[in-house]
Design goal:
about 70 residues, 3 helices
Length: about 70
Amino acid sequence: MELLEKIILASNISKQEKLPVLREASVKVDLLRVFFKLGKDLKIIENIKYIELENSITEIGKMVGGWIKASNS
C-alpha cells in the first residue's frame, strides 16, 4: 500500500518534489523483495508464486528506477 501511495503521490507533484518520493518508493520495492524472499524461505509462498511475484516486483523496480533517472535530468 505504501509503495502504491508513493507512486500515486509522485505522479501528482512537481518535478522538483518527485525525486525524494521516488527514492522512498524504491526503498519500498526493495522491502517487498525482502518480504517475498522471506515468504519463500519460510514456505509461506510457493516457489511458482514467488517467481511470479519476483518478476512483477523486478518490473516495478525497473519502472521506478527509470522514473528516478528521468527526474534527475
